[in-house]
Amino acid sequence: MFLSAADFHEGTQVDYHDIEEAWWTWGRVTYSGKEKSDRALLKWMYANMDRFLFDGEPWSRSATAVSSNSGKTKYWTVTYTSASGRKFTGGSGATRPTNRRNDPERNWGLPD
């Protein structure tokens, strides 16, 4: 399945939200597995990522999580990279505040 920028914003620049929407649309339309959970869908999407085409080229997706200070919340940063090197980054972790667990000057959030 091929999606283009015109499918999202006619005549404007593509952004992170467009490619995120295209990624999930592609997965839901092309997945034909028996198990219908989101976990099974996502596992299949990553295994078949080389087939994800957007705006005329293949894209890869990577996601990383960072825990909050309490460990109860995860902040996700998702990056899409095209075969030609274009990148879009977004997600809750892309704009998260500095976290003690990620700050060596505050002893990585460990007690004194």
Give the topology.
Elements: E1 2-3, H1 16-30, H2 38-47, E2 53-54, E3 57-67, E4 74-82, E5 87-90
Parallel strand pairs: 1-2
Antiparallel strand pairs: 2-3, 3-4, 4-5
Rounded mean pLDDT is 79
Distance between the termini: 54 Å
Overall body shape: globular
Summing up helix and strand content along with how strands pair, one would put the structural category as: alpha+beta
Quaternary state of this entry equals single chain
Q: How many separate helices?
A: 2
Our count of domains comes out at 1
What is the beta-strand fraction?
25-35%
Rg, nearest Å: 17 Å
The helix content, as a percent range, equals 10-25%
Low-confidence parts lasting 5 or more residues at pLDDT below 50? none
Q: The biggest beta sheet, please?
A: 5 strands, mixed
Strand order of the largest sheet: 1-2-3-4-5
How many strand units? Answer: 5
SSE string, helices as H and strands as E: EHHEEEE
Descriptive report:
There is one protein chain. A hairpin with a 4-residue loop joins β4 (74-82) and β5 (87-90). Strands 1-2-3-4-5 form a five-stranded mixed beta sheet, with helices on one face. Helices cover 22% and strands 25% of the residues. The chain has one domain. It has 112 residues and is of the alpha+beta class.
Comma- or semicolon-separated keywords:
112 residues; alpha+beta; five-stranded mixed sheet; 2 helices; globular
Quick summary of this structure?
The chain has 112 residues and is α+β, with helices and mostly antiparallel strands. Helix content is 22%, strand content 25%. A hairpin with a 4-residue loop joins β4 and β5 (87-90).
